[in-house]
Amino acid sequence: MTDDLATLRLLEQLIARRSVTPDDAGCQALVTERLAPLGFACETLLCGPDSFRVTNLWAVHRGSRPGPTVVLAGHTDVVPAGPLAAWTSDPFVPSHRDGLLYGRGAADMKTSIAAMTVAAEEFVQAHPRHAGSLALLFTSDEEGPSTDGTVRVVQALQARGERLDCCIVGEPTSVDRLGDMVKNGRRGSLSARLTVRGVQGHVAYPQLARNPIHQLAPALAALAATTWDDGNEHFPPTTWQVSNIHAGTGALNVIPGTVEVDFNFRFSTESTPEGLKARVDALLQQHGLDYSLAWTLGGSPFLTRPGSLSQALGDAIEAECGIRPVLSTTGGTSDGRYIAPICEQVVEFGPINATIHKVDECVRVADITPLKNIYLRTLERLLT
Ligand SMILES: [Zn+2]
């Protein structure tokens, strides 16, 4: 048995590794060193070009009788720290102050990586002849383009006919206190760059030009005022937001020739990418614009209806924290979207997310061992 500080010590070692996407910086090697001696088959999959080399880990412990395959998934990469001067202490030196542990990745999501690893160790030590299979799937490309990370491991598993039953992604989902929220799905994300063409000219001779900003403005207002759907029992309504607008030469006397607008849908299961694209096209055509659109589907929505996994996780949270989590599908996309197509039940659960991607990112030290215990209790429910 590992002691109560095992998760904290591993977490400190992980924070000290400067694993900015896609560099794993030896985080997964630390995990492998601990799990391989316990009988986990650990495979490292290096994916992507030399210029953007992604490290992925698939570590599996097979039980001795039939049962589900349960996966603990997460990412070892972190977002850049930004200007060091803004941090109270070095983001890659784990630092304790007032019951908080500071460091880049403390919340997103090295605490979960450490907790999942120690939970897996304790589980197979206590239950060497468990049912089913326990697997860990870690990537170093979640915060980046996510093209050579989890999705590549899923492709490899699919090619081998591997079947997954339950997956917990360790994203930081708690809001005010550990255990108050579990994500049982995520909205889809659909982005586009809209280019509207006009005719460049002198502002003093507008009759010789065509101002694409003026032409776009009413269409933009109409898009912003559109109700795309009303959401449903599991999802809030689909939202549409502009993130960037670019036009103009910088000169004050030139009507620009084009305007570019970047926008993004966060969509519920009540809308489809095809349907949203068609509605945007119809609206732009109604406004008589000369335009082009380049679409990027960031991820399709997924939903895990309440079942054995959310029940086991909810009971584990209640046992450790004394509260029942709310199930929610809010927030950004996660790697859950890549796992859901080959795994019937995917939920996300991790520590408080108040400081993720921020300066002075931190986690409550008092939450670290309870998080490990929640993962451990969930494994015991599903695999013994
Ligand atoms: Zn994350």
Question: Can you describe what's shown?
Answer:
The chain has nine helices and 19 strands. It is of the alpha+beta class and 384 residues long. Strand 4 and strand 5 form a beta hairpin. Helix 1 (6-15) crosses helix 3 (106-126). It is 30% helix and 28% strand. The protein folds into two domains: 6-186 and 301-383, Aminopeptidase (3-Layer(aba) Sandwich), CATH 3.40.630; 188-299, Alpha-Beta Plaits (2-Layer Sandwich), CATH 3.30.70. The strands form six sheets. The protein has a six-stranded mixed beta sheet, sandwiched between helices. Strands 12-14-10-15 form a four-stranded antiparallel beta sheet. The protein has a three-stranded antiparallel beta sheet with strand order 4-5-19. The chain binds zinc ion. Zinc ion binds next to helix 3.
What topology does this entry show?
Blueprint: H1 6-15, H2 27-35, E1 41-47, E2 54-62, E3 65-75, E4 95-97, E5 100-102, H3 106-126, E6 131-139, H4 150-159, E7 164-169, E8 181-183, E9 185-186, E10 188-197, E11 201-202, H5 212-225, E12 239-247, E13 254-255, E14 258-267, H6 273-286, E15 291-299, E16 302-303, H7 308-321, E17 326-328, H8 336-339, E18 343-348, E19 362-364, H9 365-383
Parallel strand pairs: 3-6, 3-7, 7-18, 8-17
Antiparallel strand pairs: 1-2, 2-6, 4-5, 5-19, 9-16, 10-14, 10-15, 11-13, 12-14
Helix pairs in contact: 1-3, 3-9, 7-9
Number of domains: 2
What amount of the residues lies in strands? 25-35%
Give the neighbour order of strands across the main sheet. 1-2-6-3-7-18
Q: At the fourth CATH level, what is the homologous superfamily of the largest domain?
A: Zn peptidases
Gyration radius over CA:
24 Å
Bound molecules: zinc ion
**H/E series:** HHEEEEEHEHEEEEEHEEEHEEHEHEEH
CATH topology of the largest domain: Aminopeptidase
Helical residue percent band: 25-40%
Largest sheet: 6 strands, mixed
CATH top level of the largest domain is Alpha Beta
- Tell how many strands the DSSP assignment holds: 19
**Outline, from the CA principal axes?**
elongated
Helix and strand composition category: alpha+beta
**What's the rounded overall pLDDT mean?**
96
Q: How far is the N terminus from the C terminus?
A: 18 Å
Helical stretch tally: 9
CATH architecture classification of the largest domain? 3-Layer(aba) Sandwich
Which regions have little confidence, pLDDT < 50, spanning 5+ residues?
A: none
Family: Belongs to the peptidase M20A family. DapE subfamily.
Protein name: Succinyl-diaminopimelate desuccinylase
Binding site for Zn(2+) 1: 75, 108, 171
Binding site for Zn(2+) 2: 108, 143, 357
